[in-house]
Amino acid sequence: MIKRKHWSIPYLIFLIVFVLLPLILVVIYAFQDNSGSFTFDNITKFFTDDDAIGTFALSIEIAIETTLLCVLLGYPAAWILSNKKYNKSAVTIVLFIMPMWINALMRTLATTELFNMLGMTLGKGTLLFGMVYDYLPFMIYPIYNILDRMDKSYAEAAQDLGATPWKVFWQVILPLSMPGVMSGVMMVFMPTVSTFAISEFLTNNKIKLFGTIIQENINSSMWNYGAALALIMLVIIGICSLFNSDKKETEGGLV
User: What domains lie within the chain, and their CATH numbers?
Assistant: First the structure.
């Protein structure tokens, strides 16, 4: 009889080959020059490259704006979906899932064609629309899962003590749902910073994001500098993930 722990071996092999090994190669290339010698030039070049710094700042700006829009639109949607008074059918939830069944690139191409049919100028506005359209489900579902599993007795106790519905939301529901909000923020913010295809199609290459700079360097066979940019992005994403983990542990302890 095969031991239960042996069932994890295929997953371990997958992680080593397709996750760990590529990350190691990125680190190796990031600290090498064209001759294969060790160097920090690729890292320092980023901080002296005005184009890369400007693109990175713009990517952060777009990511923050997209995330805020997703929170503003996603939280009310998640609250309605989790409230049996307003949503009594699972069909509504499926409708939010359906766009995710279609490839993100196909959705972006369809959105671009829609804007072209309407005669709209492609730019930052169309980019934000496309970003929100693609990543909104990733904001809704973490919040929905938290709200749906939330113990309703907390809100009922607050109401029994005389709290108004507005106070119940701000002082009970919203604080308890923050772990879902933070998960949604990370699931939207991180891929938005590094994306490139969406910005290329929805702005007609007028707006470049950080992922585009990485792609251009790789396509131009500048593997070392491209790997350095990718490593910088990985470090930033890792720091954000650690911050999110610490935030969840703190909130979990408080609850």
Answer: 46-254 (1.10.3720.10)
